[in-house]
Task: inverse folding
């Protein structure tokens, strides 16, 4: 396009941005989305805050050995342990009741907790269970000289477990995956329908007839999707920034862990998804003749994303690889939701993400061609609502 | 190219929508600097022709030339267009809307702003600049629409029914603006059904029917054209009985309040009519009658509709219109420029 052509396109885009930016509903929706994202980053961290560290009291016995026992038990049960030495059983009981300590190791005789869990038979992965098992082992080693026993405890009593594959994505990553699936779906839908409504408004108010005396249809179309797209981009950037900054600030493991790549994949696919769908939503707007038809016209475009979103649950809660969902992740219609979900589950290596992105970009060009053709032919045709086939068959 | 400066030429425009023929070889020429009216019954093809000129409707055949060349995107920036179905952003403010349209037509920010302010004021919209278009009365929306067509100082104005829906004050304001723009040398084509207004305002008109030109030329030419008529009143003869003596060279068209209207075949016969009237008594009134534009309109449009036999005349006029459009740049353009329809029509008789 020539320079003046870009100028015209930019004038259209600028109008869209100013027009939307002035609408109160836009700001309300944006703020609500940001609040939701902030909550998604902060609330899990706050909820986990009480669990991730625990204070273990020790009473009597050789303090060094008991401290190592408590640390080792914390490592095994996945709890960060800080050890406090308590002067007496009485103090220990009081501290347990007040919640100042989570468990008390009384010499090599017993583990005290505030309330015994129901499944006390096999304490497994809990802190108290680990304390009891390791404390018991420690008792065996007590026959050895104290320094030897301490060294054994420090070097670890349990054998290290090493997997041949990287660990599966944790629950945090999966939760993030579900959130981004919802967000991507909501944002593409919201801004897409906004395009359909905008195009429908221009057509039904007949202002398009005035505009097209000086603009080419492609300039009007491009200006509209670029303008609304920039708004969407700003919103995506704000959400990602809030999620990452706030998440790191409160130390949320959903953010600090491997899920950053999920967030980045989500941002990438939001942009790709918008680019793919925006022209189609514009073409849908050009087919209608009354504003009230906008939602109906946009409905068929939502179905693939709804499908990808609903099926995301089967992937996020499954343990095995879902081949069908992998196919969806490469289909441009469903990829914007499906691919970030796979990334969240850890089922999509980077080369698959890249390949799907290339497929999506190529399809975006094809989609823009077809949608531009429909738009150009339908935007000036009044009368009854038009069908896609009817428009493609007719001459311009 | 001096001869074609500002001239808008339509040559053989054709367009069909399914079975409906909207334009059937329409040809005529609009010279610059005139208020030029575009007339025709509903469905005659006016709107299609105007949309084709501004490039929002495609043609099956024919050419539209302005300044001697086809209209490209650069040329379109110099066109001001007012569509039949009004088109503005309902929720956009008046000033912003005008400014936006001015910028789309190539004005920079500062000039767009001052032009928007000027035209809002000029068309009586002062005080409404910050109002949303949907909040305005229909008449004021109409003014905004005209301002939108004028805000970028176009050299060609294409206005589809600019007067519909305006109150008398609005009509006057609109008329003033059109006359002023024409005097400034703008080429102008506007359609209307208000024939008395058109007659008063326009220098030239083109009348189309069923997608083709049936009459065109200056309003003066059209008024003088057709059958010559005289209105005669003889004192004391309230039923115009004296007209019994004119048989053979004049026919009585009608009698009203003692004034007889007679149609003549030759101009010289007027003297014979006067002689007959004088012999009957003192002549109180004698004069050639101009045909009103509405009569011309009914004549060229209505006749064709009513009687199958006169369709031939319409076809002949069409051929005449098409034929002389070919020489539009030359002799035909002289006085009125509208040309041809009249010539063709008279030639066919």
Result:
């Amino acid at each position: 396009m020539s320079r003046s052509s870009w100028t015209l396109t930019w004038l259209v885009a600028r109008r869209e941005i100013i027009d939307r930016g002035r609408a109160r509903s836009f700001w309300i929706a944006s703020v609500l989305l940001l609040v939701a994202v902030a909550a998604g980053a902060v609330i899990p961290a706050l909820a986990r805050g009480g669990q991730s560290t625990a204070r273990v009291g020790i009473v009597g016995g050789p303090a060094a050995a008991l401290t190592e026992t408590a640390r080792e038990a914390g490592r095994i049960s996945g709890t960060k342990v800080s050890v406090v030495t308590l002067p007496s059983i009485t103090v220990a009981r009081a501290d347990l009741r007040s919640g100042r300590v989570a468990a008390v190791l009384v010499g090599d005789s017993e583990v005290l907790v505030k309330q015994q869990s129901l499944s006390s038979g096999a304490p497994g992965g809990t802190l108290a269970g680990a304390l009891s098992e390791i404390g018991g082992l420690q008792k065996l080693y007590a026959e050895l000289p104290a320094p030897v026993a301490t060294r054994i405890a420090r070097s670890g009593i349990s054998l290290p477990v090493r997997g041949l594959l990287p660990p599966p994505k944790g629950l945090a990553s999966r939760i993030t995956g579900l959130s981004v699936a919802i967000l991507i779906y909501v944002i593409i839908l919201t801004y897409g329908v906004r395009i359909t409504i905008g195009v429908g408004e221009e057509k039904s108010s007949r202002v398009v007839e005035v505009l097209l005396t000086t603009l080419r249809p492609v300039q009007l179309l491009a200006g509209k999707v670029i303008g609304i797209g920039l708004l969407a981009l700003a919103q995506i950037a704000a959400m990602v920034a809030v999620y990452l900054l706030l998440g790191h600030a409160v130390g949320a493991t959903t953010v600090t862990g491997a899920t950053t790549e999920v967030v980045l994949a989500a941002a990438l696919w939001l942009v790709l998804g918008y680019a793919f769908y925006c022209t189609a939503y514009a073409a849908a707007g050009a087919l209608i003749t009354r504003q009230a038809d906008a939602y109906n016209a946009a409905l068929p475009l939502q179905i693939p994303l709804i499908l990808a979103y609903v099926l995301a649950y089967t992937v996020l809660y499954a343990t095995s690889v879902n081949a069908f969902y992998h196919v969806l992740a490469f289909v441009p219609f469903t990829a914007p939701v499906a691919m970030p979900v796979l990334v969240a589950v850890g089922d999509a290596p980077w080369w698959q993400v890249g390949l799907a992105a290339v497929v999506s970009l190529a399809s975006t060009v094809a989609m823009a061609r077809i949608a531009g053709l429909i738009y150009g032919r339908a935007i000036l045709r009044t009368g009854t609502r038009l069908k896609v086939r009817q428009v493609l068959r007719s001459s311009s | 190219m001096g001869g074609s400066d500002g001239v808008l030429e339509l040559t053989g425009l054709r367009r069909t929508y399914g079975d409906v023929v909207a334009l059937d070889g329409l040809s005529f020429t609009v010279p610059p600097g005139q208020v030029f009216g575009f007339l025709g019954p509903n469905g005659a093809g006016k709107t299609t022709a105007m949309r084709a000129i501004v490039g929002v409707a495609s043609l099956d055949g024919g050419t539209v030339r302005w300044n001697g060349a086809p209209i490209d995107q650069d040329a379109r920036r110099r066109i001001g267009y007012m569509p039949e179905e009004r088109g503005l952003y309902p929720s956009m403010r008046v000033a912003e809307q005008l400014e936006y349209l001015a910028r789309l037509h190539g004005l920079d920010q500062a000039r767009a702003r001052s032009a928007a302010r000027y035209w809002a004021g000029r068309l009586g919209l002062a005080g409404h600049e910050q109002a949303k278009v949907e909040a305005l009365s229909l008449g004021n929306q109409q003014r905004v629409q005209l301002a939108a067509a004028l805000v970028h100082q176009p050299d060609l104005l294409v206005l589809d029914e600019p007067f519909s829906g305006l109150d008398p004050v609005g009509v006057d304001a609109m008329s003033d603006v059109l006359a002023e723009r024409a005097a400034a040398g703008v080429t102008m084509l506007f359609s209307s059904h208000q024939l008395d207004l058109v007659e008063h305002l326009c220098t030239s008109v083109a009348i189309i029917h069923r997608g083709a030109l049936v009459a065109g030329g200056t309003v003066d030419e059209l008024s003088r054209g057709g059958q010559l008529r005289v209105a005669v009143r003889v004192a004391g003869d309230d039923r115009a009985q004296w007209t019994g003596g004119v048989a053979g060279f004049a026919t009585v068209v009608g009698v009203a309040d003692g004034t007889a209207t007679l149609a003549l075949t030759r101009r010289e016969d007027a003297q014979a009519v006067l002689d007959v009237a004088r012999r009957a008594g003192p002549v109180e009134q004698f004069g050639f009658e101009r045909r009103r534009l509405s009569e011309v309109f009914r004549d060229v449009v209505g006749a064709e509709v009513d009687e199958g036999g006169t369709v031939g005349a319409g076809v002949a006029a069409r051929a005449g219109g098409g034929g002389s459009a070919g020489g539009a740049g030359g002799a035909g353009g002289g006085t009125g420029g509208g040309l041809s329809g009249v010539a063709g029509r008279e030639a066919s008789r």
